[in-house]
Amino acid sequence: MDINIGSSFKMTKKLGSGIYAEVFHGFNIKTNMEVAIKLEPVNTKRPQLFYEGKLYQYLQQEPSVIDKGIPNVYYCATEGGNNIMVMDLLGPSLEDLFNLCGRKFSLKSVLMLADQMIQRIEYVHSRNFLHRDIKPDKFLIGTGNRAHKVYIIGFGFAKRYIQKDGKHIPYKEGKDLTGTARYASINNHLGIEQGRRDDLESLGYVMMYFLRGSLPWQNQRTRKLEYRESVDKKKLSISIEKLCEGFPQEFATYLNYAKKLRLDEKPDYNHLRTLFKDLFTKSGFEMDNIYDWNLIQKMDGTPGKTTNNNQTEQLPIGQVLQKQG
Ligand SMILES: Nc1ncnc2c1ncn2[C@@H]1O[C@H](COP(=O)(O)OP(=O)(O)OP(=O)(O)O)[C@@H](O)[C@H]1O
């Protein structure tokens, strides 16, 4: 395919697509560095790519945080009927990896991910923005020697919650649901203005999705238009205790904490990370950055090689996904 983008980039093959945009693999012609290229048609109803590009750049402008877990953006322009953004190439999303692992993650993987995901959200909040679409597809792992690092992407719905005068955005009702119904906070369903608490509540649903394999309000047999309403009803009717039943108490504690926060209250992110870190230690896990997907057996039928210390060989994740097709 090899299409030129600006004077420095070439686009090669498609990597994925969302509702609003398509993402392609590419590289910098001058340096050979691999990149991801996101394309949005110029005539789309709700253009958001340049807003997203500006946010990535803004989030990178914080010298005190070195590796922020946010991709760099190198180029934004309109070419050939598309808005284009060139950014760091990342690896698969947590949703891709969840599928690869048979749609269940172990407690160890969920706890290691939780620690990173809370840090990413805390960083975005520290820069005065809410993400407002927290879901497994918005967390991607890095490539090469950053394959254990979780990056946060997809800022099309992000919103500034600390206004220019330093005040928190006011409480409001009657708003449309923003983001993805499956992981939306209950207040988002109820039409209440979102705050930091809502990103954290959504993250709680992501964790329970990983542990349980699905959420109780998923896969309901309704037409698209009725889907949101049926998720509303089901989510409201299930208690946190029921949702987290059979899993360590810490997950219910986390969700109860997020749901009790006031709209403008700053979450104690450290407290939440400590909750999960203590559970990690109590469970006897080792912080070795080995996730479930690193232990997947080779797809050609031969099991992952066993090393001297009885650990399964880690496969480069790109290779595993390619083998899966
Ligand atoms: N920097 C990147 N490197 C590698 N793959 C990426 C990158 N950015 C996005 N992708 C892939 O492309 C897919 C779509 O990207 P993204 O979520 O940004 O699109 P979107 O249209 O904004 O999504 P949505 O419709 O869910 O809001 C992602 O799920 C991911 O698999």
Automatic annotation (TrEMBL):
Locate the residues binding ATP: K38
Keywords for this entry? Answer: ATP-binding, Nucleotide-binding
| Residues making up the signal peptide according to the UniProt record | none
What are the coiled-coil residue ranges?
A: none
Q: InterPro entries under this entry?
A: CK1_Ser-Thr_kinase, Kinase-like_dom_sf, Prot_kinase_dom, Protein_kinase_ATP_BS
One GO MF term on file is:
protein serine/threonine kinase activity
Tree of life domain: Eukaryota
Tell me which residues make up the Protein kinase domain: 9-280
- Indicate what this protein is called per its UniProt record: Casein kinase I
